[in-house]
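Researcher: Here's the sequence for the chain we discussed earlier.
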Amino acid sequence: MTHEPALGCSFAAIAAALLAVLTTGCDDPPQEEAPAPPPPVHVATVAQEMLAASASGTAEIEAIRSALIRAEAPGRVVAIGAEAGQSVQAGDVLVRLDVGRAATALQAARTGVAQAEAALSQAERQRDLARQLVEGGSLPQQRLDDAQDGVRLAQTSLQAAQAQTAVTRRGLTEAVVRAPFDGTVVETVVEVGELASPGSPLLQLVDTSGLEARVLLDPRRALDVPVGAEASLEAHARPGETFAAQVVRVGEVVDPRTRRLPVVVHIEDPQHRLRPGLTGIVSVRTGDPTAALVIPDDALFERYGEPHVFVIDGESRAHRRGVVVDRREEGRAVIREGLEVGERVVVAGLDRVVHEGEVTVVDEEVPAEEPTAAVDPESLPEAEAEAP
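Model: Thanks. This is the structure I predict for it:
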C-alpha cells in the first residue's frame, strides 16, 4: 500500500515530459532547402556574314590517267622492265614476252612471200609468151586469157602472204609491251616465267602528274556550275590544309542511284602532297557571295531527328527552338530559318539546360574541345528520363 503513490507520480512525470517535447516540435517551423543555382552556359551571338554560295561532297582523289596494261599476244614473260613504284616514260619497255614462236612464224611468213613473188614472176612470163604466140597466130586467144588469169591469181596469193607477214610481225612487236604514257607503275600482276595469254593483265600504270576528283553534288545548287568554276579540296589525310581546284567537267546526266550531279575538278598539288586513293571534302563555288546567318556548329542538337538550339532571352532564360540548317562547314552552321541576327544561343553546357529554364551566362571564352553530338534530355523515352 505504501508504493502506489510513487508509481503514480512516475507516470505523471513521463507524460508531462512527452507533452513538452511534442509541444516544442510543433512550435518550430519546417526548414526548406535552398534552390539550386542556374546552370552555367557559354553562349554565342548569331552573326550575319557574306558567304560564297557553294556545294560540297565527299570524293576520292584519282589520277588523271590510269591504265591496266594487258597482253596482246600470247607468250611467256621473260623480263619485267619496271617494278611497282618506278616512274617510266612513254615508250619505255614494261614487259617482254618470249618471241621464239613469233619469230619462227615471221620467218615462215617471209618464206611464203618469197614463194608468192616467184609464182607471180613465172605467171607473168607465161602471160608474155602467150601474148606473143597469140599475136603470131600460133595459139588461140583462150590461152592468153588463161595466162592473164594465172597472173591475177599469183598477185592475190602474194597479197595474202604479205598480209600474213604483217600480222606475224605485229605479233612479234606486241611481245614487247611499252608504256603508252608517262606515269608510275603502281602494281605488277605477273612474274617472270608466267605464261600470258591475250587480254591477261600485266601491270597497272597511272599518270600522277595531275589529280582529279569526281564529286556528286545537289542538282539544285550545282546544275548551273560552269566549267572553270573555283573549287577546293580538304583531304582527310592532310588536316588543316586546303588545296585549290577547278571544275573541268560537269555531268550531263544525274546519277541514277544518288540523284546527284557528277562534277569533276582538277586539283592543284605542285608539292605532291596528295596521292590517288585518298578521300576528302570537295567544295565547288556555285554563285556570288550572299548574306547568311552563322552560328557555331556546337550550338546545334537533335530533337526527334530535327536540329534545334537553345536561345537565351533578356531574362537569362533558355528557349528551345527548331532551326533549318542550310549547310555545315569548318565547324560552323549556316542557318536558313529559325534565328535572327543578334540572338544568343548556347554553345556549351547544353546537357544542363532545360526548356524555359533559367541559366547563368558565362562570359569566358569557350574552351576548345572535340565537338560532340548533343541530345535534348527531354526527347529521351520516359524510362531513360526517369532513370537515376
